[in-house]
Amino acid sequence: QQVSVEVLDHLEHLALVDFRDSEGVERLQKAIQFADQLHEVNTDGVEPMDSVLEDRCLYLREDDVTEGNCTKELLENAREKVEEYFVAPPGNIPLPKLEERETFLQGS
Amino acid sequence: AALNDGLRSQVSAALKEGRVTPAELCQRCLALIKSTKFLNAYITVAEETALKQAEESEERYKRGQPLGILDGIPIAVKDNFNTAGIETTCASNMLKGYISPYNATVVQKLLDQGAVLLGKTNLDEFAMGSGSTDGVFGPVRNPWSYSKQYKEKSVPKSHSEDEESNWVITGGSSGGSAAAVSSFTCFAALGSDTGGSTRNPAAHCGVVGLKPTYGLISRHGLIPLVNSMDVPGILTRCVDDAAVLLGSLAGHDPKDSTTIQDDFKPFELPNLTDVSKLSIGIPKEYHAPGLSSEILALWSKAADLFKNAGAKVVEVSLPHTRYSIVCYHVLCTAEVASNMARFDGLEYGHRSDMKDSTESMYAATRREGFNDVVRGRILSGNYFLLKQNYEKYFVKAQKVRRLIANDFVKVFRSGVDILLTPTTLSDAAPYTEFIQEDNRTRSAQDDILTQAANMAGLPAISVPTALSERGLPVGLQFIGRSFQEKQLLTVAKWFEKQVQFPVIQLEEVERHDSDVFQHQKSASFS
User: Fold this and answer.
1) B317 touches chain A (CB under 8 A)
2) Where is the Amidase domain positioned along the sequence (chain B) (predicted)?
C-alpha cells in the first residue's frame, strides 16, 4: 500500500531532507516493499541484537581530561562564526507547512 | 625493489639495505598516480606532505633506525577517514573543502610507523554503493579495463570508442583504494567495510581485501555509516602484506569504546603445508541466484583444492542467508538516518545561504549537499524508525540479525574452521551496464555474499583467485571465527600460493617500472 502524503511530509520534517521528485517517493515505496520480506522470518522468542559485542563489557575510561583546548581548530571549519560562537539562524521557527513550503509533495 | 614485492620479505629489506630509498618509492608512486589519472582513483594527492614524510623516513633509514616494516611505505587512504590538514570529502558536496582537524586513529597509527600518505582515494558518496560510481568526483575505473589480459579478450565493436566505453567498474564502495593498490600506485590502502565495501572491489580489482572482526580495529575518525557494522578495511597485493597492516592497526583504542580490550599481538603468517587438520565449510545458500557459472566452477575447484590437499570439506547451511540483505537494508538505513543528522552546515561542511530559520537552513544545506542515494537512505531509515514502524521493521531486523549471527555460531561450533564462498556474483560489469540499475538495487544484488559477515561481525577476506573469460579478476572469500584473523589469514595465504593469480599487465606500469614483472607467475588456476 502507498505511503500517505501526511507520512511523507512528516518524514521530510524529521529528516530535514526532501524527496525531490516522484523518483524519490518511488524509492521509498520500493525500500518498504523490500523490507517487508522480513516478515517472512519467524522471530518468536528471539531477542533483538544491538551489537555483536553484546557479551562483552563496554569500555569506560577514567574521567580524566586528556585533551581539549582546541577551540581554534574546531571553529576553522565553520562558515559562520562570531568570536567563539557558531552562528545559526533563528531557532524555534518550525519548517513551513506543506502548503507553504517548496516541496515536490505539494502537488500530490 | 619492484613495485610488486611483498612488504615484509622484500621491500623492507631493500629499504634497510639502501637498495631503494623512501623518496624513490614515493616519487615512483606519485609519477604513476599522474600517469594513471584516468582511473580517477584519487580525490586528493598529498604530494608535498608525502615527499616530506618520505625524506624523514630516509633520515631514519640512514641512521639505521627505521620505525618498522611500514617505514617509508607509500599508502593511500579512502576519503572517509579523517586526515589532519588534508581535505576529507567522502566524495560528497557536503564535505567538499572540509579540512580535518585530526587524524583517524588508523591513519595516525600508520603515520606513527613512518608510512607515507600519498593521498585520499575515491569512493561512492559516503560509502553508499557497490560500484564506486556514485561520488561527486565521478566514477573510479577498474585498472584491469586497461590490462593486456582484458583487452585481448574484448571483442572490438567500433574502433576508437572501445576503451572509452568498455571500461569496467571497480566495485565499491572502496573502489579508489582497490584501484590504487591494483595499479601499483601504493603498496597498501585503507578502505572501509560495512556490507562488503572492501571485499567487493578487492575481488573485482584482483587484490586482497581484508575485513577484520568488528571491534578489532578502531573506527575513531572513520566517518560512520553503520556504527554496529563499520570496520576499517585493508587492501594489499598479497595476504602477507595484509597481515603486516593488520599488525600495525589492530588493538584497543580508548577513543573508540567499541574496540575490544583484549591484548592484540601482531603476527607473522606461518607457511602452512599441512591442511589435513583443517575443516572448510561450504555454505550452500551462497550458491545465490545470479551467481555466474564461471564463479561457481571456480568455487567448486577451490573446494576440491582443499579436499585434494587433505582438508575436510563439508557442505554447511546458513539458513537465514537470503534475509541478511533485507535485514541489512533496514538496519543500515536506520543507522544512516541517525549518523547523517550531524550534517547541518553549522560546524563544518557545506552550509546553505538560507537564513530564515535553523530548520530551513539545515534542510537547504542537506538538500544541496547530499546526493539522491544518501537522501534516499536517510528517508527510508527515518521511515523504519517511525513510532508506528519501529517494532515492525527496526526491532524485527535486529531479531533477524541475531538469527543470522547464530547461524554462523552453530556452523563454527560444529567443527568448521573456515567458510569458503564466492565474493561476488560475477566479474566486474562494464560501467555503461552497471548504471542501468539504481544504486539500491545494485547494492542489494552485489552485497549478497559479503554482508552477512558484517551482520555477524566476523572477519572475512577476499583473495584473488583467477581471471574470468573476459580477462577480469575473480576473488573467493574466506570467513573466519571472531578474532581468529591469524587462522583466517594463514589459510588465505596457503590458498593464494596454490592459485598463483597473475600479475596485471598494465602499459603505464611497465613503462615506469620494467622490473615489476620479474616476479610474474603464470596463471595456473583458471
Assistant:
1) no
2) 28-147, 169-489
Asked if the structure places residue A36 within a domain, the reply is: yes
Number of structural domains (chain A) is 1
**Residue B316 CB contacts under 8 Å (≥ 6 apart), including other chains:** B281, B282, B283, B284, B411, B414, B416, B419
Q: What is the pLDDT of residue B524?
A: 36
Contact assignment for B98 to A77 by CB distance below 8 Å: yes
**A78 part of a folded domain:** no
Choosing from B174, B182, B197, B380, the catalytic residue is B197
> What's the CA angle centered on B172, arms B154 and B70, to 5 degrees?
105
Closest-CA residue of B relative to A87 is: B346
What lies within 8 Å, CB to CB, of B477 at 6+ separation is B199, B203, B420, B421, B422, B423, B449, B450, B460, B461, B462, B463
Return the percentage of chain B with pLDDT > 90, whole number: 89
Would the pLDDT of A75 be above 90?
yes
Question: Tens digits of per-residue pLDDT, B307-338?
Answer: 999 999 999 999 999 999 999 999 999 999 99
Give domain status of residue A60, yes or no: no
Chain A residues lying within 8 Å of B440, measured CB to CB: 27, 30-31, 34
Q: Is B153 a catalytic residue?
A: no
A67 touches B102 (CB < 8 A): no
Question: B520 pLDDT band (50/70/90 cuts)?
Answer: very low
Query: What is the predicted ipTM?
Result: 0.94
One-character DSSP codes across A54-76? TTSPPP---S---S---HHHHHH
CB-based contacts of B159, cutoff 8 Å, min separation 6: none
B173 is catalytic: yes
Which of the residues B130, B173, B192, B462 is marked catalytic? B173
Using an 8 Å Cβ cutoff, are B174 and B78 in contact?
yes
> In this complex, is the C-beta atom of A45 within 8 Å of any C-beta atom belonging to chain B?
no
A46 lies in a domain? no
Three-state secondary-structure class, residue B318: coil
Query: What is d(CA B302, CA B358) in angstroms, rounded to the nearest whole number?
Result: 58
**Assigned CATH class of B10-152+167-324+397-520:** alpha beta
CB atoms within 10 A of CB A74: 14
Q: How far apart are CA B280 and CA B421, in angstroms?
A: 10
B379 vs A13: CA distance, rounded Å: 10
Return the pLDDT at B89.
97
DSSP A12: H
Look up the domain containing A6 and give its range.
1-40
Whether A17 sits inside 8 A of B367 (CB atoms) is: yes
Domain boundaries, chain B: 10-152+167-324+397-520
Amino acid at B218: S
pLDDT at A67: 87
Residue A65's pLDDT band, with cuts at 50, 70 and 90, is very high
